[in-house]
Amino acid sequence: MPWKGEKNPYYIWLSEIILQQTRVEQGLPYFLRFKKKYPIIKHLANAKEDEVMKLWQGLGYYSRARNLHETAKNINQNFKGKFPNTFDELKKLKGVGDYTAAAIASFAFGENKAVVDGNVIRVLARVFGIETAFDTTESKKRFAQLAQELIDKKKPATYNQAIMDFGGVVCSPKNPKCDECPFNKICVAKNHELIEQLPYREKRTKITNRYCNYLLIKSDKEILIQKRTGNDIWKNLYELPMIETTKPLKKGFAEAVAKYLSTKQFSIESHSKEIAQMLSHRKIHFRFIEVELKDFKSFSLQGAQKVKLKSLAKFAFPKTLHLYLEQKSLF
Ligand code: SF4
Question: Which domain holds residue 283?
Answer without folding.
Answer: 208-327
